């Protein structure tokens, strides 16, 4: 994987974390146990420190960076969806940042809060714990339901399991030229999208 020392600061990756080989880790980056960093993610610790605490994930094509002297922190079980941008912010434990959301400098995403996909969270905004914010710019929508937070927590557990599975069984290979007979599927625990959970009452 592309790992770069920057001015004698070397990224730190716990042996129980999984970082995809196409992710970039630069400088002052600290990744804790059971974390998952997806393909194409950029964790650029050349202005400020980037910290992933235990069990958090930063998914495919996310960007993490900061204003000089600020840190990016994703606390325990933080969940950062595909393509999100974190810039000089703190994501508290069990919080979720949705796909392609942008979270700016000085933002604090409260514990177990959700930032909806495609939202823009302006600098300095404080997302209350256990709440949903959405929009451009993001605004407080409502408190979260218990089933929404449970759904998120279960999804984060799946990413922790994915980190373990990738450490054990993800290897480069050449593609096949045709589909083999009775091709099996990835074995995965059952999961239900949130809109279906809510539709089911």
From TrEMBL:
<protein>
    <submittedName>
        <fullName>Phenylacetic acid degradation protein</fullName>
    </submittedName>
</protein>
<dbReference type="InterPro" id="IPR050484">
    <property type="entry name" value="Transf_Hexapept/Carb_Anhydrase"/>
</dbReference>
<dbReference type="InterPro" id="IPR011004">
    <property type="entry name" value="Trimer_LpxA-like_sf"/>
</dbReference>
């Amino acid at each position: 994987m592309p790992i770069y020392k920057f001015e004698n600061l070397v990224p730190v990756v716990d042996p129980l974390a999984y970082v995809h080989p196409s992710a970039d880790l630069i400088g002052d980056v600290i990744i804790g146990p059971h974390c998952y960093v997806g393909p194409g993610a950029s964790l650029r610790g050349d202005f400020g420190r980037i910290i992933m605490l235990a069990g958090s994930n930063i998914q495919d094509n996310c960007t993490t960076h900061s204003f000089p002297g600020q840190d990016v922190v994703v606390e325990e079980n933080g969940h950062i969806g595909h393509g999100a941008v974190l810039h000089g912010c703190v994501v508290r434990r069990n919080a979720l940042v949705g796909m392609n959301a942008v979270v700016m400098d000085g933002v604090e995403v409260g514990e177990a809060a959700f930032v909806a996909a495609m939202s823009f969270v302006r600098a300095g905004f404080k997302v209350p714990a256990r709440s949903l914010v959405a929009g451009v710019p993001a605004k407080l929508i409502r408190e979260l339901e218990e089933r929404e937070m449970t759904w998120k927590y279960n999804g984060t557990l799946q990413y922790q399991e994915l980190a373990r599975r990738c450490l054990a069984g993800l290897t480069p290979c050449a593609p096949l030229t045709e589909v083999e007979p009775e091709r099996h599927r990835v074995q995965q625990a059952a999961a239900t999208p949130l809109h279906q959970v809510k539709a089911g009452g």
